Amino acid sequence: MSRTVAIATLGCKTNQFESAAIEEQLKDAGYCIVPFEEGADLVVVNTCTVTARTDAQSRNLIRRARRLNLQCRVIVTGCYAQVDPEAIRRIPGVAMVIGNDEKRDLLRYLAEEQQRQLVAVEEPGRGRGAAPFSLSTFADRSRAFVQIQNGCDAFCSYCIIPYARGSSRSVPFDEVLARVDGLARQGYREVVLTGIHMGAYGLDLEPVRSLTELVVAIEEGIALPRLRLGSIEPTEISERLIERMAVSDHICPHLHIPLQSGADSVLRRMNRHYDAAFFHDLIVRIHRQVPEAAIGVDVIAGFPGESDEEFEQTRRLLDELPLAHLHVFPYSRRPGTPAADMPGQVAGDEIRRRCAVLRSLGERKARQYAERFVGRTLELVVEGGVADGWRRGLSRNYLNVRFRHDEDLQGQCVRVRVEGWEPAGLYGSLL
Fold first, then answer.
1. What pLDDT, in 10s, does the model give residues 182-218?
2. Which of 3, 70, 157, 239 has the highest count of CB atoms within 10 angstroms of its CB?
C-alpha cells in the first residue's frame, strides 16, 4: 500500500475543513503526509467547481501530480468531481473519482485495492440528516471548527453548489453540542461553527431547531470562551441572535453576511430573496445593537446585465454601511447555472475595473474599522508567528493584531494594547 500522501485543496472553508479531516484519517491509518511538490505515492485532489476557472485549476493539479510522480495514484473528490465525474475520469492517471458524500469513505475505497478505475458518485444528500466530517485535533490551528450543516436549498442563479452539495442537511442538535463540548474540554479557546448554508440549520431536524437555538444552547451549557459563526444569509439572522450577541461575553461580535448586489433588479436576477432596503436596515440594526461588531459582506461585480447604474447602486450602498471588510468576487460564468445563459454578459475588463473600485472601498472600510481600536486593549487568541519575533492573534471582532514576543504562545489568550495601524494591519504590545 502507498504510504506517502499529499492533499491538494481548492475552494471554500468547508472543503478545507473536509481535507483536514481526510488528512487526520489518513494519518491514523499510517500514511505519512508530505507536501504536494514532493511527489507522493498517493495524491488526493479535493476540487472546487464554483467557476469554470476552478474546474481548470483542478484539472491542472491532477496533471501536475502525475508529472511529479508518474507512479502516483490520484484520487479526485469535491464539488467538481460531484458535478462532472466523466470529465475527470478521462484525465490520464486518475485512479478514483469519488463524490462529496463518498469522500468520508475514502479509507474503505483504498482498502478495496481496486484493479480498475473507480467512479463512485451518487446524488448528494439523498437521505435527510448530515453526516459531516469531524476533527479531533487541529494541529496547525489555535481555533477549532465544527461543521453543523451541509448542502443548500437556495438555488441562487449564479451558484452550482446546490447541485454539488445537495439539499440542506443538519447535524443532530445534541451531536453538535457534544462536539463543541469535547473541543472546549481539550482547551480550545475558540470554536467556529461552519456550514454551506448555516442559516438553514435545524429546519430538517425533528423537532425543528434553529441556528439561534443552537448558539444559545452552546453559550448556556458549555464552558467555551469564544464561539464564532460562519457566513449567514441576511434573511436568516434573527433578532434574538442579534440581541444575544449584544450582551454575550462568549459569542464573537462578528458576522459574515452575503449581499452580492446593492441593486434590487440584480438581486431579482440572482434569485436573492431580499432587497437593498432590507439589507441596509439589517446592517444598521446590527450596528446599533452591537456597535463594535465586525460586519463582513460578500459582493459580486459584473453579474450578467449589470448596468453602470446598477453597479453604482451597489457601490453607494456599501459606502453608506458601517462595514469592517468586503469580500469582492468577479462574476464568472458557471455552466449549468441559469446565470450562465443570461443575456448581457459583462466584458472581463469591465468586471475587473468594477472589482478594483469595490476592493479599494473595502480597504478603506477595513482601515477605518481597525483604527477605531488604536489605543484600546484587545484579548487575542494567538494563532502563530511571523518573521523577526512577531506573533499574531485574532480578537473577538476578527481583527488580526501583531505583537512581539520570544515565546511560542499559540493557542493561548493574551491581552495586547493596540498601538497603531500600518498596511500589514494593527500592531501593539503584550500586556
1. 999 998 999 999 999 999 999 999 999 999 999 999 9
2. 157
CATH dotted code for 126-252: 3.30.750.210
Helices (H), 299-387: 308-320, 348-371
Domains 126-252 and 289-372 share a fold: yes
> Which grid cell is 258?
452575503
pTM higher than 0.85 for the full model?
Answer: yes
Q: Which of 100, 103, 60 is nearest to 80 (CA)?
A: 100
Cα angle 133, 135, 139 (rounded to 5 degrees) comes to 145
**330 and 355 Cβ atoms separated by less than 8 Å:** yes
Q: What is the domain class of 377-430 according to CATH?
A: mainly beta
Residue with cell 495514484: 73
CA torsion sign for 280, 283, 284, 285 is positive
250: alpha, beta or left? (left if phi > 0; alpha if psi -120 to 50): alpha
Question: What does R_g of the chain's alpha carbons equal in angstroms?
Answer: 22
DSSP string, 11-78: SSHHHHHHHHHHHHHHHHTTPEE--GGG--SEEEEEE--SSHHHHHHHHHHHHHHHHH-TT-EEEEEE
Q: Under a CB-based contact definition with an 8 Å cutoff, are residues 71 and 64 in contact?
A: no
Task: For residues 245 and 226, give the distance between their C-alpha atoms in angstroms, rounded to a whole number.
Answer: 12
Residue of 141, 78, 115, 333 whose CA lies nearest to 61: 78
Residue 75 phi/psi, 5° resolution?
A: -110, 125
